# Entry
Amino acid sequence: MRFFEDQIRKVTPYTPGEQPKMQDVIKLNTNENPYPPAPGVAEALNNMEADTLRLYPDPTASKLVGAIADYYHVEPSRVFVGVGSDDVIAMSFLTFFNSDKPILFPDISYSFYEVWADAFRIPYHKIPLTETFQIDPRDYNADCGGVIFPNPNAPTGVALAADQVEQIVRNNQNTVVIVDEAYIDFGGESVLSLTEKYENLLVVQTFSKSRQMAGMRIGFAIGSEKLIKYLSDMKYSFNSYTMNRPSIEAGAAAIADDGYFRGMCAKIISTREWAKKEFRKRGFEFADSKANFIFVRHKSAQARELFTKLRGKNIFVRYFDQPRIDNYLRVTVGTEEQMEKLFTALDEILAEQ
Amino acid sequence: MRFFEDQIRKVTPYTPGEQPKMQDVIKLNTNENPYPPAPGVAEALNNMEADTLRLYPDPTASKLVGAIADYYHVEPSRVFVGVGSDDVIAMSFLTFFNSDKPILFPDISYSFYEVWADAFRIPYHKIPLTETFQIDPRDYNADCGGVIFPNPNAPTGVALAADQVEQIVRNNQNTVVIVDEAYIDFGGESVLSLTEKYENLLVVQTFSKSRQMAGMRIGFAIGSEKLIKYLSDMKYSFNSYTMNRPSIEAGAAAIADDGYFRGMCAKIISTREWAKKEFRKRGFEFADSKANFIFVRHKSAQARELFTKLRGKNIFVRYFDQPRIDNYLRVTVGTEEQMEKLFTALDEILAEQ
# Structure
């Protein structure tokens, strides 16, 4: 190793879900939305004049921030936007989790939390979920450097009721509590409105799932004016212009079409509920999901084997080789047609067992 | 102050140049390119299917990385892309400047370096430019935690010859040396080819200036495979999907049109050289610029006053209220027509003195 390497900050990077480049795969592995973005998005992109790209974007992304603020009935000064919720949460870790005390998050959760904590040298303590994959709010009453958890949780899909989330926020008013609501629009109870009551609460959401725009990289946070100000200061210290012109235009267009948004969420919820029955019929077990995925375990077939055999049939689901969940598959809710193909494939695979 | 605020990481954010929202201003304040992106960029954006936005982008941005690698004749494994060169450099600070020894950069330079160092708690030492605003390579022979400087330097526009850059790289082989070549395409000597010889050299460039795409946020670094691997690990620890689909498509289209790129750079260089004469005629002094801006001081008129009066005429230039340079204006090279309007305005203002 060369000497200059000694001082390099080394990290174990997060491994994103596979993005297969072949056509004709059924992609149920990264929780994308199976439906296209709202029609206004295509229009916004087609109407963009490429000439304007020579100019920097608005560093405050005010068109997008304003659209989000209007939609959620909050002041624009309480909205922060970033390059996907990963960017928003990474900035939040850097800004808010700056104590010597450990931050707390569930042991089974979004695996990026651990990666960020490691990268930024933030001490952390993982709180085990209960046997049934529940977050128990009483486990989060510790003297800590901050709290973060997804609601609904990933990859379990299990949702925490708003009053239980509030219990965690209320018991940790000396630190910042981040509720990662990436999947909230598929049936969970959002605590957005609690950001008026608790200055230490930051709620993060994303356009990647319920707004069909994973490819555009838009995430946002809503919190007290105070938290958003600190977060913006950090963002402006990092990169003044994070949101490019297409993302500002397309993001604003996406949020403008509430009917489309609600309709598509309802469709996914309905497919999910039907899929739960189909999974159950075939001997799968799962905690109840309020997300756009279901985290399933078969009563006899091994998850890893199912994963590999599905992949052989060009159906991609997600498998985590981790303690406690290494016999589970996380299956994104696709279109009904995609799910039917999945169940046909599972029938074939299970028949061979 | 509430208790949770104690542990928040507080920073003094960078103040970006104004982005006036009015029409009909002459914007010579943020070093944007006055010409539109290559025609292929509009085509790439118009041909994008909005439906694909529902899917995550390729996390490796391989289409864009491949286009850059081809263009500069390097292996794709030696190319890193980010959301503007600010993102690339911020990630580089976090990754490479991880020592207790101070990093070195010029006292008059891109003001973000200091902001990143502060935000990431990296010790630094600012090396004064010479009286004539030159970087003296001998000043960088210290036991340090890393080196960064722009070439040409900003906001001075002064370029360092490749052999002098090499001297700095050679004398600091125990640390990483970052050469920020944001403005290199306007006449400086790039040290890209030295990345084959020096494993500790990282060269950063951007699509924001010479490739007319400030609004798309694309920057890149080329270095040894080793450096790029460490940088990518950090990036994947921060945000797996930084480049959105439009930026990958438009970026690849921009770099494909070499004729357009060269033609537009030549046009700006020619306007700059003519503008130098015009400035000189009017009593302005400046170090020779190899960038798309000129850093000027008038022999009698005060910079701050000129700045304000130009602004009153809807002409925006950049003024820095900082020691050593508070009587200078940084003027971006616009179209000939814009520069003619600038000179007419300056004539009016100077006649009133």
